[in-house]
Structures are given as C-alpha cells and as structure tokens.
C-alpha cells in the first residue's frame, strides 16, 4: 500500500498518462500508477544500483515488466524525448530536483505535467519552474510521520485550463491590508511567494502554519547561537534574522 504522500502524488497524475518516475527507489509509485490504470506505461529511473535492483524486483513481483521499464541512469537521461507525458520526482531536495530538470531540458518537450515533491528547498524549485515557463496548478503541504512535505504540480505556461492562474498572477507582489490591527499594509514580495508558495498562501492549510512556526523556531535557534558570537558580522546577521522572523509572524497572523 502506498504512503499518503505517494498516494497524493499519484492523484496528481491524469488518467491514461505515460509517466516517468525519476529516483523511483522501490518503484512503488509507477507500480501503483499502472495497477490503478492511471498510467498506461511507466519508466522507473534510478541512478543507484541498490534502488535500481529493488525497483526491478518490485516490478517483476507485481507482474508488470511489460508495462514498466526500469532503467538505470542519471535523472532524465533514462527517457527519450516525447516518450512520457508526466514526470514525477519525489523525496529529494529541491536543489537536486532542480538540477535534474535543468540538466536535460530537451526531455521536457512534450511533457504536459510535472509532479514534484521536494523535501526541502521548495523555493529553489519554484524559482526554476517560474524561470523555465512552468506554471503551478496545485500545491499541497502534508504531514507524514512527523515530517512535512510539499507536492507541487506544474504544467507548461499557456497550457493551464481556464480558471488557473498565470505565472504573472501567481507571483505578482501583493499588498495585504491590516486595518483591523492598525498596522500598515503588509507587502508580500515575489521572493516571499517563491518561499512560501503562492497557492499554499492563497488557501492556507494548518500544516502550512506548522511548517512556518517550525521555521521560526529554527531561526530563533540561530539567533540564540549568534548572541554568543563575538564576530562583528553577527549583529548584522541577527538583525536580518529578526526581520525574517517578524515577517513570517506577520504573514501567519494575516492568514489566521
Ligand atoms: N521517489 C521515491 C519516494 O519519493 O519515495 C524515493 C525517494 S528516495 C529518498 C530518492 C531516490 O532518488 C534514491 O533512490 C536515489 O538513488 C535516487 N536518486 C538520487 N539522485 C538521482 C538522480 N540524479 N537520478 C536518478 N535517481 C536519483
């Protein structure tokens, strides 16, 4: 049975897709995708020998060797252009996912959907998507086994359905009025939208609060260690972190 995280990723795959799951490990996702009929064929890509063997065994045990091709290689090198409709990359850092996408951009031609689940570094990945003309159509944040995960789904710019926002709309600077508190308006910059997720901010989930309260705790930890530092740069760094904490707190207060 799939974990809730992998199940939610699977649900982002349109029915009848040809998929490539890159960094597939045990090939749980492609197996479930083909078994459920969501995928008509799948490629499971793995760069490391251990997970590659595990994927090969899992696919054979499921009796799906005819519709799932397990391939050993780095990132998107395992697929040929136009071979798949959907690429899923899950359970890695946003930086690694970004470098995998960036390394073989010709393989993205003809791909109609990316379903990405970074463990950290979501902002790096959002920035790459924005700069390479992919538009977010869904963002989810979930908790599983005391870990938080974000699932980002993107389509090529211009191929969104009606009612879905453009990149310009998603990342337009926002001004949130705070008359109720007597505070001046809060400016939500493009950088902040890249960090926190434009769709997550538009429809905040309790898990989003948990994530950013956790980030505040981490920043407070850094502040505490800076306070004992004698480096002259420490105070500047501390000021910057205090600003970051204040901004996150203000955003969370507005979302409540
Ligand atoms: N995608 C599965 C999931 O979300 O449960 C497995 C995630 S596992 C933590 C990450 C996997 O990515 C590992 O099996 C690792 O070998 C693989 N991996 C890391 N870098 C890769 C790359 N450049 N190309 C293909 N696979 C890679």
UniProtKB/TrEMBL annotation:
Coiled coil: 231-256
One function term, GO molecular function aspect: tRNA (adenine(22)-N1)-methyltransferase activity
A Pfam family reported for this protein in Swiss-Prot or TrEMBL: TrmK
InterPro entries in the cross-refs: SAM-dependent_MTases_sf, TrmK
The entry's keywords: Coiled coil, Methyltransferase, Transferase
Gene Ontology BP term (one): methylation
Transmembrane spans: none
SUPFAM superfamilies membership: S-adenosyl-L-methionine-dependent methyltransferases (SSF53335)
Database matches in PANTHER family: TRNA (ADENINE(22)-N(1))-METHYLTRANSFERASE (PTHR38451:SF1)
Protein name: tRNA-m1A22 methylase
Originating species: Paenibacillus pini JCM 16418
